[in-house]
Specification:
Helix content of chain B: 25-40%
Helix content of chain A: 25-40%
Strand content of chain A: 5-15%
Distance between the termini of chain A: 11 Å
Number of helices of chain A: 11
Largest sheet of chain A: 5 strands, parallel
Radius of gyration of chain A: 19 Å
Order of helices and strands of chain B: EEEEEEHEHEHEHEHHEHEHHEHHHEEE
Distance between the termini of chain B: 28 Å
Strand order of the largest sheet of chain B: 6-7-8-9-10-11-12-13
Shape of chain B: globular
Oligomer: heterodimer
Number of strands of chain B: 16
Strand content of chain B: 15-25%
Radius of gyration of chain B: 21 Å
Strand order of the largest sheet of chain A: 7-6-5-8-9
Number of strands of chain A: 9
Largest interface: A-B, 24 and 21 residues
Chain lengths: 309, 427
């Protein structure tokens, strides 16, 4: 497939057939994971800047591994080591990066729209690794890829996203992508953690987890930012864990082969019980593996676009 | 009959061709136009094909001097006003230092006189509380004496209802109206985005319309209780309009303004693929929904909203060319307000009467300013306007230092060709 997009800002840019092309490419890279030498020369001589203006361990490492497995040179730039801490604007940081002529920039930033801001100003591919509360397209793609591997097809399945929806870029991108793939999406959160206009989203919203979980095929738990309690959005973490944490009693109400996902890192005992995190139903570690191959597929497609290779 | 200094020849005034005779800065007579004039030694301004309008009054401008001259200064702000058709501009007190002492007011007025001796008139608004802190009343007697025409903490809502009530009472002792920045500060951050579908999809922290309406309701109750006037700044939503309408029906001394950007843009602009996250549309209060936009137009036409004001808020380009969360709120407006709102008249959205009332008689009436109604004795404040001249909004065509407007790149119709204030040509 000839890849025409310059940037990946959100999954809304992708057609269903393009998502399938990503899955197919990721599937091919999966075989590489089994080899003793897990490296191919596909992107040899190309450079990828990992610009993480917000702390991240797993997404950054996942992109780093993905780039290196394709033989790209990866360079890290964190906020603490960049001039952003010296007051440099994002525009100047972007122009400095541009002058170094990378082939792709993977950006994570605390502001919604920051990836678009860079994409409008840079010639190289910009891949959004999470911008503010807006989007986290690679996480959504790896989540759906994980389920796609598990089920063969996501269409027709019912998936519950549980937790802090209001502040979650993971939830926003997953709602868009799962709908695109034909799934029925439910959301569950206290009203204080639900987006104000959720009624306009293509989902069914619940505040009762026992109702929300009935008959679902998968539950995606979201990480709770513990400072939400300080913001006054929750009375206390104990009540949250008891009311909106996922426990075995909820799994019993779901479909028999329910699958549990979590983008990590997990607050065990708060949004998910520790036993469930380690259970047979849990796909948390599969998500990590999927993350590497999906990001390999994305780097490959975005860095070799225009039919260059 | 006084000596005639100036004659406007063949100007189009409300569909008629007229000659306007001016003496000693005032309109002396207006007659149906004649082909050949006996002008004597008066200056004659040929106005054939141009529309004659009274100078506009803007009751809500941020000139940024002192303190932020890189965004705008008195000279550049008055230039933008003159070319924008404004004869009076009232400038807010959120400068650095804040306009809460006579020396700051004096400095502003001195600069205005030095650079623009004949106008546009700069009319300072004094701070309501010292340093805009919301804690201690500003010295309003001193400020009024120095030339402040009103008082406001615009930009920083007064949190204490008690202090606000005292400020309204004290201002009335000096015959000044208080202008309130209508925003409940406890309803979330001033994010520059309306809370709703668009902010939810874009993942931006947002503020709901009730942050404005709650403060409007508070101000209505205070004005009613004290039986004193309060002017409500930059009204942007239907909920506020409904409260104001019912208050006015009861005779509460409330007046209100809205800005052109609430009439021509909605929050949808921010998720349009061509303008997604455009910080030039980040403004406080934020651009609202299409229903709110419709409510503002209805309210202007029926008089619930008394007047228009630009809320001219210039910023440097580098301050706006940044992440949405980081960018300051504000849209520059003095240069574009006439073209955009006159276009609404041409489209039939606003009536001509509404336009004239909203930009001239109503703001002047609320703040006791000189007004030109084209009657003998009125100040000779008017401009000639080519309604058909097209121009493109760009950093080159805006006279303000602030180029921060979502209209950048847009083609507008209508340009001021000549502007007289008190009979003196300023443009």
């Amino acid at each position: 497939m000839k890849w025409l997009h310059k940037d990946l800002l959100d999954v809304s840019q992708l057609s269903k057939s393009e998502v399938m092309a990503i899955f197919e490419t990721a599937g091919r890279f999966q075989e590489l994971q089994e080899r003793p030498v897990k490296k191919v020369p596909t992107l040899k001589g190309r450079s990828v800047v990992l610009f993480f203006a917000e702390p991240s361990t797993r997404t950054k490492t996942s992109f780093d591994v993905a780039g290196k497995r394709l033989s790209a040179d990866t360079f890290s730039l964190a906020k603490s080591s960049s001039s952003l801490t010296k007051g440099e604007s994002l525009k100047d940081t972007a122009l400095t990066l541009q002058a170094m002529a990378p082939d792709a920039i993977v950006i994570r930033h605390w502001c919604s729209g920051a990836a678009r801001f860079l994409a409008d100003r840079l010639d190289c591919a910009v891949i959004n690794a999470g911008d503010g509360r807006h989007a986290h397209p690679t996480q959504a793609l790896l989540d759906s890829f994980t389920l796609h591997q598990e089920w063969g097809d996501v269409a027709g399945k019912t998936i519950l996203i549980l937790g802090d929806i209001a502040h979650s870029r993971v939830a926003r991108s997953n709602v868009i992508l799962l709908n695109k793939l034909g799934a029925d999406v439910r959301l569950c959160a206290p009203r204080t953690l639900m987006p104000p206009a959720v009624q306009s989203w293509p989902v069914t919203a619940y505040s009762d987890l026992n109702e929300a979980v009935k008959g679902v095929d998968a539950v995606m738990c979201l990480r709770l930012q513990l400072e939400r309690q300080k913001d006054g959005l929750l009375p206390d973490l104990r009540e949250y864990a008891q009311t909106f944490g996922l426990h075995q009693c909820h799994v019993d109400l779901a479909n028999q082969d329910v699958r549990i996902l979590h983008p990590g890192p997990m607050n065990r005992g708060i949004e998910i019980s520790s036993d469930l995190a380690d259970s047979a139903e849990s796909l948390v570690l599969d998500q990590v593996s999927s993350g590497v191959v999906v990001r390999m597929a994305l780097l490959f497609l975005y860095m070799t676009r225009k039919g260059e290779e | 009959m006084p000596k005639i200094d100036l004659i406007l020849h063949r100007a189009a005034l409300d569909g008629k061709e007229v000659d306007v005779f001016v003496g000693k800065g005032k309109i002396v007579e207006i007659r149906p136009s004649v082909e050949t004039l006996d002008a004597g030694d008066a200056q004659v301004e040929e106005a054939f094909g141009l529309t004659l309008m009274p100078s506009l009054t803007d009751v809500h401008v941020h000139l940024r001097e002192p303190g932020y001259e890189y965004k705008e200064d008195v000279e550049s702000g008055l230039r933008a006003a003159a070319w924008g058709g404004f004869g009076n501009i009232m400038c807010m007190a959120n400068t650095k230092p804040v306009n809460d002492t006579q020396s700051v007011t004096d400095m502003m007025l001195d600069k205005a006189r030095r650079y623009w001796p004949h106008g546009p008139r700069l009319l300072p608004i004094g701070a309501l509380t010292k340093g805009l802190s919301g804690k201690e009343l500003a010295p309003m007697a001193e400020l009024a004496k120095a030339g402040c025409v009103a008082f406001s903490n615009d930009g920083v809502p007064v949190k204490s209802t008690k202090i606000f009530r005292l400020a309204v009472e004290y201002a009335s002792d000096w015959d000044r109206v208080v202008i309130d920045h209508c925003e409940d500060p406890y309803m979330g951050v001033a994010a520059g985005v309306n809370e709703g579908e668009v902010s939810s999809r874009l993942g931006l922290p947002a503020q709901p319309d009730i942050a404005e309406a709650l403060q409007v309701a508070r101000d209505v109750l205070i004005a009613e209780y004290l039986d004193l006037p309060i002017h409500l700044a930059h009204i942007s939503c239907r909920k506020s309009v409904n409260i104001i309408r019912s208050a006015k029906a009861r005779g509460v001394k409330i007046s209100a303004e809205t800005a052109p950007h609430y009439l021509i843009f909605t929050e949808d602009y921010l998720e349009d693929p061509n303008s997604e996250y455009d910080t030039n549309a980040k403004v406080n209060p934020p651009l609202r929904t299409r229903d709110d936009q419709a409510a503002m137009i209805e309210a202007l036409n029926d008089g619930t909203i008394d007047c228009l004001a630009t809320d001219h808020a210039p910023h440097a380009s580098y301050e706006k060319e940044t992440e949405f969360d980081v960018a300051p709120c504000g849209i520059t407006g003095l240069d574009t307000a006439l073209s955009t709102t006159w276009a609404l008249v041409k489209e039939g959205v606003l009536t001509r009467e509404t336009f004239i009332r909203a930009w001239t008689t109503a703001p002047c009436g609320i703040f006791n300013l000189p007004v030109n109604t084209f009657q003998p004795g009125d100040p000779a404040d008017f401009f000639l306007f080519d309604e058909d001249e097209e121009w493109t909004v760009s950093s080159q065509t805006l006279y303000s230092k602030g180029k921060n407007t979502p209209l950048l790149g847009t083609s507008l119709k209508g340009r001021v060709k000549t502007h007289f204030i008190q009979g003196k040509k300023v443009v």
